[in-house]
Amino acid sequence: MAKLLIVEDSAIVRGVFKQLLDDEEFDYDLVATYAEAKALLSKTRYEFAVVERALKDAPNGEIIALFNKRNIAPLVFAKEIDEDFFESFQSAQIADFILKQKYNNISNVIQKLKQLQANKNITILVVSDSHIYSHYLKQNLNLQSFKVLTVSNDEEAYAKIELHPEIALVVVHNEEPYVNAMAFVTNVRLSKSSKDLKILALVDETNSYETSSLLNAGADDYVVKPFSRDEFYVRVYQNIKRVGTV
């Protein structure tokens, strides 16, 4: 199990985390301050983290930046989520956020950690000729601990799917002439059923003919650009959960 660091200034909440984590297979460290976290990060490699956004010695979210400098996207466990946080959520490397309101929410943090651990065994292929979109999609999928492969055109995508049968989801960015989502979906469905491989298409606008044609050709879902990180994650998880089902 990957190494986990929890930074939480409430002794009560730390006690609940310890109680729950001791029943799981996580190898974890539990500290109360920014300073303690910084000291541990200087000598230990962590893969996952849970942090309280406002600590007594770092009240403005500095703990998130500290983890980001070490390429760790923490789960943020916060007393409140305001507009400023949502803006930072779009730019900072944050795996997810969970409100600190109820005892059960600590259980939700544990479940999210287990999901991130499971995601390490799920492979997603991104098909896009746009370097900007390809980088954006890969970065955000990596924040969720997915394995991510990227290609820039249809032909490379076919070869990747053949070489990596473990691919569970393809995110295809419809951008002709290099990526034709309709032709891609049609060709993939000749050899891969929706049960074995899900296809999520990114389209430029809400066009009922285009989207219905993609779905009829075998795409499982679509997202209209521009989209938020949250919306993208929802669509990805919805389709990943359906892998293995008709």
Write the layout of secondary structure elements.
Layout: E1 3-7, H1 11-21, E2 27-31, H2 34-41, E3 48-52, H3 62-68, E4 75-78, H4 83-91, E5 96-99, H5 103-119, E6 123-127, H6 131-143, E7 147-151, H7 154-163, E8 167-173, H8 181-188, E9 198-203, H9 208-217, E10 221-224, H10 229-241
Parallel strand pairs: 1-2, 1-3, 3-4, 4-5, 6-7, 6-8, 8-9, 9-10
Helix pairs in contact: 1-5, 2-3
List keywords for this structure.
Rossmann fold; alpha/beta; 246 residues; 43% helix; 10 helices; 2 domains; 5-stranded parallel sheet
Overview of the structural elements:
- By secondary structure, this protein is α/β, with parallel strands linked by helices.
- The chain folds into two domains: 3-118, 3-Layer(aba) Sandwich (Rossmann fold); 121-241, Rossmann fold, CATH 3.40.50.
- It contains ten helices and ten strands.
- Strand 3 (48-52), helix 3 and strand 4 form a beta-alpha-beta unit.
- The model has no long low-confidence stretch (mean pLDDT 90).
